[in-house]
Write a structure and sequence with these properties.
Elements (H helix, E strand, L loop, with lengths): L10 H10 L17 H15 L4 H11 L9 H17 L2 E24 L3 E2 L23 E2 L4 E9 L5 H9 L8 E5 L7 H10 L4 E5 L2 H4 L21 E2 L36 E5 L1 H10 L20 E27 L4 E11 L11 H19 L6 E8 L2 H4 L1 H9 L1 H7 E6 L8 E6 L4 H8 L10 H15 L23 H7 L3 E7 L12 H8 L4 H19 L7 H16 L6 H6 L21 H26 L5 H16 L18 E3 L5 E3 L1 H8 L3 H37 L1
Length: 748
C-alpha cells in the first residue's frame, strides 16, 4: 500500500471545479462536467444515472460468495477455473472480444515447510490457522499451511535473532550490540514501520542471514488494536499473513522475461541471472507460533520501540534459542491466465480506457482481491446491459482480470509488456481496483492531471451514509489527518493522493507503459490481511455487511470510466500536474524525502540528511528545473482556459478533438526515460517510482542519486527532467495554439 500524501491543484483547476460542481447530486441533469460541452454533459449525466441504477448489493454478495468459496492462489486449478468463469460471464453479459491469454511464467508453490525450536526447549510450530466459531470456511481442508511466495528452498539449524522490522537500521542496531546475523535465522515482524516483506528478505539476504521468519505481532494487527475475529475485525491468535518476497521493486512480472512478455517462444534468462528471485528462505508465522520463540530468547533486552504486544519482554537473542527451518518449494515455470474483454467504442474504438482487478488470492481473498473482483463483475454486468440496450461508450473499455499479482504483479506486467506499443498509441488511462473495500473510508489515487476529475466525480455518487462520496471522503480524510497529527486542512486541492508507489497492478501501466492511472479503495480496520480469515464471513460481519460499499465501488469505477470514454476533450489538467511536480522538487531540495531506512539502504547513517535540511551539493542547481516547471504550468493554464472556452461554445469538430486528445495522451508518455531509473531500468517514469519498500518515490532517478550523493548522476537526472518538462511545455503550447486557432475561426 502506498503512503497517502496530499497534492495541490492549480488555480485554474480549482476554478474549473467550481464551475463543474454547481449541480447538486439530486439534480437529474448535470450541466457541467470536466471535458464535456453543455449538451454532451447533460447526455452523460443521463447515461451515468442509468448505469448507477444497475449494480445491486445482492449481486455483489452473490459474486463475492463465488470468488471466496475456495482458496485460489495463482497457478491453482481453482484460480484457473475462475478465469474461465469470468470469461463465460462476460460473454453472457455482452462483452466483446473476450479472450483468455496464457503466460508461462516462473511461479511459486510450496511443497513442505517446517519450523521447530531445538533448544533450549523443543517446540514445533503448527504453521496453521485454526477454525473460529461461526466461520464454516475455516474448516476447508484446502487451506494451506504457512508459506512465502518465491522463498528459496533449503534447510538450516541455527541461532535465532530478533531484528524488529528487519529494516537496515535494525541490523545496524544489532551490530552495535555485538550481534552478527550472518548464518543465523532472523525473526522480524510486519509493519513497524511499514515495509514490503520482499525488502525485509533482501535486507536479511544482504546481511548474510540463513533464513527469515516474519510474524504478525498483535501490536500491529491483533488484540492490541481491538476485538479479534470472530468478535471484531482484527487478526486472531493464529492468523498468518502470507505473501511473496519477490524483489519486484527491481523488476516486476516474470523474473525470466524482464522487460518483455512471457509469450510462446520468448527468450528466457537463466534463473541465476534473475535479479527479482530471492536467494533466502522465508516463512510467515502467527503470533501463536512466534511467542514460544520470543519467550525463550536471551541476550540484551530489545529497545522500547522494539517491544510488541505480547505479554513478555522481547530480547535480541542470538545464542540461547536455536531453530530448525526446512522449506521445500516448487519454484518453476507454470501458466498464469489473464482474462480480457471489451465494450467496443461507438465513435473512437482505437482509444482505450483500461480497467483491471487481480483474481488470485493467498487463500479466500475476502478483501484482497475478491471484494474488488465482485465489484468488477457488477461493473461489467452494468456495462454489458447498457451495451445490449444500444448505450455504448464513445471510446473502447478494456476490462482485465489479472493473474499472479500476489506473486510479482505478474499477469498485468506480462500483458502490459506484450501490448506496450499498442497501449502507448491508444490508451487514455488505467483504473485499478485491487481491494474494493475493508471498511467505509475512501482513498483515491491519481496522477495529478486526473486528480480534479476524480474529485469532481466524487460529488456525483452517493455514499451509504447518505452523503455524497465527496463529503464522506473529505470527512474521513480530515479525521485521519487529525489522528496522524497533521495540521494541513483537507481541501479540494489536496484531497486526492498523487503520491503513487507500487504494490498493485497499476505499476506496469504507469512506470513502464507511461499511462495515467487512478486507484480506488475503501478501507477500515483490517487485521486479517493475506490470511485464511480474510473470507466471506469476515466481509459479512466486519468489512461491508450489506455490500453497500462494493456497490458504490462498482458505481464509482464505472462513472470514472464512462467520463473518460465519453469526454469531448480528455479531462487532463496539466497545470495541476506542474503544481505537483514543483512540490516534488521543493521537497527534494529541502531533504524531506528520505527516511532512516532509506538512508541505511544506501549505506548512510540515519542522521545523514535530516528532514528539513537543504543538503544538496552546490553544483546541483535546481533553478532550471523550477523555471521549466513554471513554463509547463503556464502552458497548462492556457490550455485549460482554451479548452473551457471551446467546450462552453458547444460542439467541437471531431478532427480537432482528435488532435487535442491524442496530443494530451502523449504528455504522460513524455515522462518516460527509455533508459529507466539508474540501477532499475525497467522503471522508466521520471516523476513516479517506488522505493524497495513499495512506498512512493517522487522523481526516482534524481532522488536516489541525491540520497547516494552521486552528484554526477544527479546532474544527469536533473537534465533529463528539465528536458522532459521542456518537451511537454512545447507540446501543450502546440495543442493550445491549435485549439485557439479553431476557436478564432469559429468566432469569425
Amino acid at each position: 500500500m502506498s503512503l497517502r500524501r496530499p497534492m495541490q491543484l492549480s488555480t485554474s483547476a480549482l476554478c474549473y471545479l467550481a464551475l463543474a460542481l454547481h449541480s447538486p447530486l439530486s439534480s437529474q441533469a448535470q450541466t457541467s462536467i470536466l471535458g464535456f460541452t453543455p449538451p454532451t454533459a447533460a447526455h452523460e449525466a443521463e447515461i451515468e444515472n442509468k448505469f448507477k441504477a444497475i449494480p445491486s448489493p445482492d449481486e455483489e454478495r452473490r459474486q463475492h460468495k463465488i470468488f471466496t468459496a475456495e482458496p485460489h492462489v495463482a497457478g491453482s486449478a481453482r484460480n484457473n477455473e475462475l478465469a474461465r468463469y469470468i470469461a463465460d460471464e462476460w460473454r453472457n453479459e455482452g462483452l466483446e472480444d473476450v479472450i483468455i491469454r496464457r503466460y508461462d511464467v516462473y511461479g511459486s508453490n510450496p511443497k513442505s515447510t517446517l519450523l521447530e525450536m531445538t533448544g533450549p526447549v523443543h517446540y514445533r510450530a503448527g504453521l496453521r490457522e485454526l477454525p473460529i466459531p461461526g466461520d464454516p470456511d475455516m474448516k476447508n481442508k484446502s487451506i494451506s499451511s504457512a508459506w512465502s511466495g518465491m522463498s528459496a528452498s533449503g534447510e538450516v539449524t541455527a541461532p535465532l535473532v530478533y531484528a524488529h522490522s528487519g529494516n537496515p537500521e535494525d541490523y545496524d542496531y544489532l551490530r552495535k550490540q555485538g550481534i552478527d546475523v550472518k548464518g543465523k535465522v532472523v525473526l522480524v515482524r510486519y509493519s513497524n514501520p511499514y515495509s514490503y516483506r520482499g525488502f525485509k528478505a533482501l535486507t536479511a539476504q544482504r546481511e548474510g542471514a540463513a533464513a527469515l521468519l516474519i510474524y504478525s505481532d498483535p501490536a500491529e494487527d491483533g488484540f492490541k488494536k481491538g476485538k479479534v475475529d470472530p468478535n471484531g475485525p482484527w487478526g486472531p491468535e493464529y492468523h498468518i499473513q502470507r505473501g511473496a518476497i519477490t524483489y519486484d521493486f527491481m523488476v516486476p512480472g516474470d523474473p525470466l522475461t524482464p522487460g518483455w512478455a512471457s509469450v510462446p517462444g520468448a527468450k528466457r534468462i537463466p534463473v541465476e541471472e534473475a535479479v527479482s528471485i530471492p536467494k533466502i528462505m522465508a516463512l510467515p508465522l502467527s503470533w501463536h507460533d512466534a511467542k514460544p520463540l520470543l519467550a525463550q530468547m536471551d541476550g540484551p533486552i530489545a529497545p522500547d520501540d522494539w517491544q510488541g504486544g505480547l505479554p513478555l519482554k522481547y530480547h535480541l537473542g542470538g545464542n540461547r534459542v536455536r531453530v530448525h527451518v526446512k522449506i521445500e518449494m516448487d519454484n518453476s515455470t507454470q501458466p498464469y491466465y489473464v482474462v480480457e474483454g471489451r465494450i467496443r467504442g461507438a465513435d473512437l474504438p482505437d482509444e482505450w480506457i483500461v480497467l483491471g482487478n487481480h483474481r488470485d488470492a493467498w487463500v479466500f481473498g475476502g478483501v484482497d482481491p475478491s471484494s474488488g473482483t465482485a465489484s468488477m463483475m457488477e461493473l461489467t454486468r452494468a456495462l454489458g446491459k447498457m451495451a445490449k440496450q444500444g448505450i455504448r461508450p464513445r471510446r473502447t473499455l478494456v476490462v482485465c482480470s489479472w493473474d499472479g499479482e500476489e506473486v510479482g504483479l505478474t499477469g498485468s506486467t506480462e500483458w502490459g509488456e506484450q501490448f506496450v506499443d499498442e497501449l502507448r498509441q491508444k490508451a487514455v488511462a488505467y483504473i485499478n481496483v485491487d481491494e474494493a473495500t475493508s471498511g467505509p473510508n475512501f482513498h483515491g489515487q491519481a496522477v495529478a492531471s486526473l486528480a480534479p476529475m476524480l474529485v469532481e466525480t466524487a460529488h456525483t455518487v452517493k455514499d451509504p451514509s447518505g452523503k455524497t462520496l465527496y463529503e464522506a471522503w473529505k470527512e474521513s480524510s480530515t479525521r485521519e489527518r487529525r489522528e496522524a497529527k497533521l495540521t494541513q486542512e483537507v481541501t479540494d486541492s489536496n484531497l486526492a493522493d498523487t503520491r503513487i508507489g507500487s504494490g498493485s497492478d497499476h505499476t506496469v501501466f504507469l512506470n513502464f507503459v507511461g499511462m495515467p492511472v487512478l486507484g480506488l479503495q475503501f478501507d477500515g480496520p483490517y487485521g486479517v490481511y493475506h490470511s485464511a480469515y480474510d473470507d466471506f464471513f469476515w466481509m459479512n460481519h466486519f468489512g461491508d455487511p450489506g455490500y453497500r460499499y462494493h456497490t458504490l465501488m462498482s458505481q464509482l469505477w464505472g462513472v470514472l470510466a464512462l467520463r473518460l470514454a465519453n469526454a469531448d476533450l480528455l479531462p487532463f489538467d496539466f497545470a495541476s500536474y506542474a503544481t505537483n511536480i514543483r512540490q516534488f522538487v521543493n521537497e527534494l531540495e529541502k531533504g524531506k524525502q528520505m527516511s532512516g531506512q532509506d538512508k541505511a539502504m544506501w549505506g548512510q547513517p540515519p542522521s545523514a540528511v535530516q528532514p528539513g535540511e537543504a543538503r544538496l551539493s552546490p553544483p546541483l542547481d535546481l533553478k532550471p528545473i523550477l523555471d521549466a516547471i513554471d513554463d509547463f504550468e503556464a502552458a497548462g493554464q492556457r490550455l485549460d482556459e482554451s479548452a473551457s472556452r471551446a467546450l462552453a461554445a458547444g460542439a467541437i469538430d471531431p478532427k480537432l478533438a482528435a488532435i487535442i486528445n491524442h496530443g494530451a495522451m502523449q504528455v504522460e508518455r513524455n515522462w518516460l526515460n527509455p533508459d529507466g531509473i539508474p540501477g532499475r531500468p525497467w522503471f522508466k517514469h521520471i516523476l513516479y517510482g517506488a522505493r524497495f519498500t513499495y512506498a512512493h518515490l517522487e522523481l526516482p532517478g534524481l532522488t536516489e542519486a541525491v540520497e547516494k550523493q552521486d552528484w554526477t548522476t544527479a546532474q544527469q537526472q536533473a537534465e533529463i527532467l528539465r528536458q522532459a518538462l521542456a518537451n511537454n511545455t512545447k507540446l501543450v503550447n502546440q495543442l493550445n495554439s491549435t485549439l485557439n486557432g479553431e476557436i478564432s475561426e469559429k468566432g469569425k
